[in-house]
Design goal:
This protein is mainly alpha-helical. The chain has eight helices and two strands; from the N terminus they run ααααααββαα. Helix 2 runs parallel beside helix 3. The relative contact order is 0.10.
Length: 255
């Protein structure tokens, strides 16, 4: 199984020194271009546009990515039409594949992401620092990951009119507000991801029920496929048990 959404975002931001908060943002094509630039370092990053919000601009970024795939004979179709819609699942799957490709082909060493995208309309969330740092790949491949320089300060969060002041209190309040907004976005993304996979499991359950209704003998086969799938669907573990109907149901969800 590939990395989770949060693990991928952490790796992406660490490698490229960005502050991407949603997998869907990869639908612009900009971050994807720079992932492959970190491997080959021959993409025209000056033509990659980060601060864009139209599908036409996204297409220009993906043309650069497709040229990279063609040049280096990467045997993978880039599903541009799906990715530019900025849907979570499409971009998650392609980002997972890109991470596996990066784990296999990244040459190691330092990669100064900020310097590589200078003049490319880089997002304001990226801030250069005095010196680059290196880190080991989480995949255990052994090569040190080339990363962008570590920013010493985060991008200044927007402050409300009432919070604008020269004192440290106003800045601290704005930082907390920004952190709270980020946490809310994270929770919203996790809930959407949870609902997505739950709906998939429910669809599978309905298909099994329909198959058993059509042929009741299927459910009597102890080692049959139906029984095996049902065992997986209805298995529980500590903290994920189905609450008793007559008991008090806790307000907090356990999944």
């Amino acid at each position: 199984m590939g990395e989770s959404r949060q693990e991928l975002l952490g790796w992406l931001n660490d490698l490229l020194q960005l502050k991407v908060t949603k997998v869907e943002q990869c639908g612009t094509g900009a971050a994807l271009c720079q992932i492959y630039d970190s491997i080959y370092q021959d993409l025209p990053m000056s033509r990659v546009k980060f601060n864009v919000n139209t599908e036409y601009a996204y297409l220009q970024n993906f043309k650069i990515l497709q040229n990279c795939f063609a040049k280096h004979q990467i045997d993978r179709l880039v599903p541009v039409e799906s990715l530019i819609k900025c849907k979570m699942q499409d971009n998650l799957e392609f980002l997972q594949w890109s991470k596996r490709f990066w784990d296999q082909y990244f040459p190691g060493g330092e990669y100064d992401a900020v310097a590589r995208r200078k003049g490319a309309g880089a997002p304001p969330a990226a801030a250069p620092a005095p010196a680059p740092v290196t880190s080991s790949r989480s995949s255990g491949a052994g090569a040190a990951a080339r990363r962008g320089t570590t920013p010493t300060t985060a991008a200044a969060p927007a402050r409300s009119v009432g919070a604008i002041s020269a004192g440290g209190g106003g800045a601290a309040s704005a930082a907390l507000k920004q952190e709270l907004n980020t946490m809310k976005e994270t929770v919203t993304g996790l809930e959407r991801e949870r609902d997505f996979y739950f709906s998939k499991l429910r669809d599978i359950e309905l298909l099994l029920q329909q198959a058993c209704d059509d042929n009741p003998e299927l459910e009597k086969e102890d080692n049959g496929l139906i029984k095996q799938v049902q065992t997986i669907l209805y298995s529980t573990e500590e903290g994920f048990e189905i609450p008793a109907e007559d008991g008090a149901v806790d307000d907090q969800e356990t999944f």
